[in-house]
Design goal:
Number of helices: 6
CATH class: Alpha Beta
CATH topology: Rossmann fold
Strand order of the largest sheet: 1-2-4-3-5-6-7-8
Number of strands: 8
Shape: globular
Helix content: 10-25%
Strand content: 15-25%
CATH architecture: 3-Layer(aba) Sandwich
Oligomer: single chain
CATH superfamily: Alpha/Beta hydrolase fold, catalytic domain
Radius of gyration: 19 Å
Length: about 270
């Protein structure tokens, strides 16, 4: 059977560049180097058209001991179809490094992306930082220190790591107050060095949207509430969405209605 059909273009195609090196870390007794990479997913541009799309920088979790920048990217296609670029970012994990090097890596990635904004077709003035669990901790820390240049090292320092909105999912906030079951997750040996996020909260923090599940048995809801309350007390803008009954890294967080709430927040808060 032969058919001729007319297709109406309702959404963009999506493309992925999966091996972009944004920096490097010393390795093997400081005698070698290992690359820091990011994966960049974008709406496919029309022929000859210049892009200037907003960017979501995404940080995977992994108890600060492991990370996979691509593991959540299939769920991020939804945002790419809405006209956003998404950068899944590698950061150092603590069998190789110590606090605050993971935050330094992420802030370097943000500055790198700003420096290459025209090349990649992204808008360096419209960046959302979003991450889950340990990545949510780094998300909050980097979001709160974008203006004061803390942890800015490694290159591209003529750009800031400031972002316009911050969306941590079930973030760790004050690690000293948490009870972790060692049979469920192994935290880094230097966990006591990880700063209390609330110590960085100021009135001029970028807008925050915090997501947390009421049934989270790994990072309790009280951690997300602690960050929300600290932002509210400081006079910064903060929203919080509690997913009833949702566990840690629950599939509930990637349902269309939750993504729609995230998108609504982003579109209201980006300049």
């Amino acid at each position: 059977m032969k058919q001729t059909i007319r297709v109406q273009i309702r959404e963009p195609g999506v493309i992925l560049a999966g091996e972009i090196v944004y920096g490097q870390r010393r390795a093997w007794g400081n005698l070698s180097y290992r690359p820091l990479k990011l994966s960049l997913m974008r709406p496919r541009p029309s022929s000859g058209a210049a892009q200037n799309v907003p960017l979501i920088v995404w940080l995977c979790g992994g108890a600060f001991t492991e990370v996979d920048r691509d593991i959540w990217l299939p769920e991020m296609v939804w945002f790419a179809k809405k006209g956003y670029a998404i950068a899944g970012v590698d950061y150092s994990t603590t069998y190789r490094t110590r606090f605050p090097e993971s935050a330094e890596d992420v802030k370097l990635a943000i500055r790198f992306l700003k420096a290459h904004a025209a090349e990649y077709g992204i808008d360096g003035n419209r960046i959302v930082l979003m991450g889950e669990s340990a990545g949510g901790y780094i998300t909050a820390l980097c979001g709160l220190t974008g203006k004061n240049r803390e942890f800015d090292t490694g290159g591209f320092e003529n750009y800031t790591s400031e972002v316009q909105a911050v969306i941590p999912w079930y973030p760790l906030v004050r690690l000293s107050g948490m009870k972790i079951e060692p049979d469920r997750v192994t935290l880094p040996h230097d966990i006591t060095a990880y700063a209390d996020i609330t110590g960085y909260v100021t009135r001029d923090a970028p807008p925050f949207l915090i997501l947390h599940g009421s049934g989270d048995s790994l990072v309790p809801l009280s951690q997300g509430e602690l960050l929300y309350d600290s932002l509210q007390k400081a006079g910064a803008y903060a929203d919080m969405i509690v997913l009833e009954g949702a566990e840690h890294a629950d599939t509930a967080f990637v349902q269309p209605e939750v993504k729609a709430l995230i998108l609504d927040f982003i579109e209201k808060k980006l300049p």
